[in-house]
Amino acid sequence: MVQPKLIIHGGAGSSLKGGKDAVRKSLFKVVEEVYALLCSGASAKDAVVKGAQLLEDDPRFNAGTGSVLQSDGHIRMSASLMDGFAQQFSGVINVSRVQNPILLAEFLQSSPDRVLSDFGSAELLRELSVPVYDPLTEQRLKEWIDERNHNFSREMANVVAEPAGTGTIGVVALDSEGRICAGTSTGGKGFERIGRVSDSAMPAGNYASAKAGVSCTGIGEHIIDECLAPRIVIRVGDGLSLAEAMERSFTEAGNNNRDFGAIALDNSGTIGWGKTSEVLLAAYHTGSEMGDTLELPDGVITGCR
Ligand code: GLY
Description:
Elements (H helix, E strand, L loop, with lengths): L4 E9 L6 H20 L4 H14 L19 E7 L4 E8 L5 H8 L6 E2 L1 H10 L10 H12 L19 E6 L5 E7 L19 E3 L3 E7 L1 H7 L1 H10 L4 H14 L4 E7 L4 E5 L3 E7 L4 E3 L8 E4 L1
Parallel strand pairs: 3-4
Antiparallel strand pairs: 1-5, 1-11, 2-3, 2-6, 5-6, 7-8, 8-9, 9-10, 10-13, 11-12
Bound molecules: glycine (GLY).
């Protein structure tokens, strides 16, 4: 019997002007609920899906309800699930009009076709008779209208800044049988070109093995360029400790001027986090206590518990 572990995130970025207590409260609420599930014997996969669903339903985060709008004013969301025990990835890319993209990724775990793009995801929603849902919030609409009035001068939305909201969400869990799973869900960068594909539905942003799991957040193009999640997971598989794998990967990322963060777990129960961004909004449960990364100093930082 293994002591379950859990870490979740709600984005990484350049600033969080106040509002830390509210973000911490939102993250801890999810950590408490999902950790209780793990303690009652839930699989890492079920815990990750539940955690991602709760975060998608919280309008504070840029995933599910509260997702940012793309340049044409539409919301397109992406989510993925990587079962490290089964060594199996699934995901949806740029899906619209659904409450919980992570549930589609979960469904695709048992499908022969495991990653669907926009049209295929819409077909799947119809096949499964999933009710049509509008994830738009007033805050995100206002942000898009303001930006349109400024002729889209910004490259992306305020994904980590109050009051607009916070970022991409992710969950990594180790269950009582020692299985690891990682899940990530996002509305993207905001204001992006139609058809832009997020790292969150690629192994680059969400990856796991029997030994480790990682969920990333931040600028997707940077995460893809570093191939961040597999880079960390494979280093652990090759014999580095999680702390060494995080430190080496984030030192390299810092040298390449990347802007992102990641959460991680290994099968010995070590919980890890790292960032090159100013802030990483993550919270975790060690089995004896909850903690968070909201007060980390500026610069490239990694840590483990
Ligand atoms: N990391 C989320 C995105 O860039 O879409």
